[in-house]
């Protein structure tokens, strides 16, 4: 252990809203009394994952006391320190990690093994520690599909036309699940290099798929009239972010899902509201992918998923943390 016992401090308590740990704070802390989990990102202060996961753990602790010592933290990790963070967290006994922007693709080179979901998606948002090192999974795609198929949203049908805006790790995951569900994806981005790479990755896994792509700066005239529009860029995390796409390109029947979330209504969602399009931020997806992640870290739930009461607690905690109302059911 790099730190002396005298220099170490006890494990931090369950983090409050906006509380973030730095790598230096993690290095100084002694986590031996808890089972630690965390989300890594840059920035990460906005994340409600700690409230969500710790709410589920509190529910699980009512029937199994071992979960009373589990903790889920936010840790700010600059991109250039990702490998350092993974090594440090392994040494500190962290059992599982979630990853958000900008780590989902870059983490792949540091993993000891990758689940098929990470290979197909070309990114990982969930890591589980094993004796051999970190194993990578991706729950984004499944979380997205469960979110848009299930109440309170329920505005997605398999084989729908979907306009996917963005070309990062989330685009790969969501794109793959759309193809699994026989949807027709139209993938767009303002950077053609990343756009072409996403299409290439998806085409390798789905060689028979008909994947459309277009430059956001020059949208084609033959776009679907009433698709599901999905924002998988980071535009929307900040209240003053511009919309990633102009929804006036589409007509009645269009539905909008913004994978970002916050206390504010993003510019994309505001335009959807103005046009009368059913729309949701990314909290339902966060809850579903988070529930899947937590079940991967707990042996007894790995195959069957979390108990319904624990999953429900995650949903309530996510919306309560931001003080916003859950979306109405558009079914």
Describe what this molecule looks like in 3D.
By secondary structure, the chain is α/β, with parallel strands linked by helices. It has ten helices and 14 strands. It has a six-stranded mixed β-sheet with strand order 4-3-5-7-8-6. Strands 11-10-9-12-13-14 form a six-stranded parallel β-sheet, with helices on both faces. Strand 9, helix 6 and strand 10 form a beta-alpha-beta unit. It is globular and about 60 Å long. The termini are far apart. The N terminus is likely disordered.
Oligomeric assembly: single chain
- The N- and C-terminal alpha carbons lie at a distance of 54 Å
Give the H and E element order.
Answer: EHEEHEHEEHEEHEHEHEEEHEHH
Instruction: Please identify the structural class as seen in this structure.
Output: alpha/beta
Shape: globular
Helix percentage: 25-40%
Which percent range describes the beta-strand content?
15-25%
Explain briefly what this protein structure is.
About 35% of the residues lie in helices and about 20% in strands. The chain contains 10 helices and 14 strands.
Element layout with pairings:
Layout: E1 9-10, H1 23-28, E2 29-30, E3 35-41, H2 49-63, E4 70-76, H3 82-91, E5 96-99, E6 113-114, H4 116-121, E7 126-130, E8 133-137, H5 140-149, E9 161-165, H6 169-180, E10 184-189, H7 192-205, E11 212-215, E12 228-231, E13 255-258, H8 267-275, E14 279-280, H9 283-297, H10 308-322
Helix pairs in contact: 2-10, 5-6, 5-9, 6-7, 9-10
């Amino acid at each position: 252990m790099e730190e002396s016992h005298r220099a170490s401090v006890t494990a931090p308590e369950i983090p409050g809203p906006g509380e973030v740990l730095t790598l230096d704070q993690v290095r100084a802390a002694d986590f031996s009394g808890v089972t630690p989990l965390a989300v890594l990102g840059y920035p990460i202060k906005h994340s409600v994952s700690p409230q969500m996961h710790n709410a589920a753990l509190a529910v699980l602790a009512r029937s199994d006391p071992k979960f009373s010592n589990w903790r889920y933290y936010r840790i700010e990790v600059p991109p250039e320190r990702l490998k350092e963070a993974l090594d440090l967290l392994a040494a500190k006994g962290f059992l599982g990690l979630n990853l958000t922007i900008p780590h989902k693709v870059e983490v792949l080179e540091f993993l000891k093994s990758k689940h098929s979901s990470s290979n197909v998606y070309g990114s990982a948002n969930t890591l589980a520690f094993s004796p051999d090192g970190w194993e990578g999974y991706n729950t984004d795609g499944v979380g997205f599909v469960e979110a848009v198929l299930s109440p309170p949203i329920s505005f997605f049908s398999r084989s729908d036309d979907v306009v996917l805006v963005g070309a990062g790790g989330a685009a790969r995951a969501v794109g793959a699940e759309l193809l699994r569900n026989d949807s027709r994806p139209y993938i767009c981005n303002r950077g053609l290099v990343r756009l072409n790479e996403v299409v290439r990755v998806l085409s390798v896994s789905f060689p028979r798929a008909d994947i459309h792509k277009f430059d956001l700066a020059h949208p084609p005239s033959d776009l679907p009239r009433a698709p599901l529009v999905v924002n998988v860029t980071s535009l929307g995390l900040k209240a003053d972010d511009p919309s990633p796409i102009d929804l006036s390109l589409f007509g009645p029947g269009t539905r909008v899902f913004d994978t970002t979330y916050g206390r504010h209504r993003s510019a994309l969602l505001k335009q959807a509201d103005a046009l009368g399009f059913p729309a949701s931020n990314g909290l339902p997806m966060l809850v579903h992918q988070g529930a899947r992640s937590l079940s991967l870290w707990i042996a007894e739930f790995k195959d069957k998923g979390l108990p319904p009461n624990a999953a429900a607690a995650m949903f309530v905690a996510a919306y309560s943390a931001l003080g916003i109302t859950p979306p109405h059911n558009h079914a």
